[in-house]
What we know:
Layout: H1 9-17, H2 25-54, H3 56-61, H4 63-68, H5 70-73, E1 82-85, E2 89-90, E3 94-99, E4 102-107, H6 110-117, E5 123-125, E6 131-139, E7 146-151, E8 158-162, H7 167-191, H8 203-218
Parallel strand pairs: 1-6
Antiparallel strand pairs: 1-2, 3-4, 5-6, 6-7, 7-8
Bound molecules: zinc ion (ZN).
Amino acid sequence: MSVKIQEGFALFSKRMDAKVYIESDDEVIDNMESQRILEIKKERDERKRKLLFDNLDLIMRHRDEILKTPRYARVDAHYALRGGGAYIGPISMQRTFYAAGFPVTLHITLGSLLGIWGTAAYKVDCSCGNTAYIRSFGGSPLSGMSVAGAICPHCKNEIHGIRSRSFGEYVRPVQNALGSEEAAVSQAFTSGVSGKVCERCSLEKMISELKMREFQDMQ
Length: 219
Ligand SMILES: [Zn+2]
């Protein structure tokens, strides 16, 4: 955050003589790097989102296995859903809270996402006879009106202009998912029992493992 400083010329000259800069070169470089990291993260989220939806049929075929496998269920999927509301802006798919004074950031995991897609509000019938899943929504928390878009994993059809649900029906499952993640982490902090360390897995790695398995099953 930048702070506007009202400074007279005399004070400015004095400060320059003393070589006291408001923002040092090191800070400028640090801020520029932070900006670049944010841009790369944004590009990465876009790429991962496309990859996830391009492989949604594969993911849905292995739904039960993903939910049972912690390293798959814990894959970060905060970029998948996009939601926003009038007056309140984007619906965050991440949450930061403090546990024992330390900031902990949680995000919508692939396991949570599959749970959200399991709720009636996030499913629509596609003209091909299969189920399509909501991936973006917008609306008003005041009137409850909403409009959403879905994608069918089977025929890849994009369905726009879904207006049959209330805005809250989309927001609640997201908040519930983040809420139960937070409760689990808080409990681990208070009990001191953090459980088994889960091996980290990326969306890319999971997709290639699932594809390989299907290929081997075909042989
Ligand atoms: Zn379809």
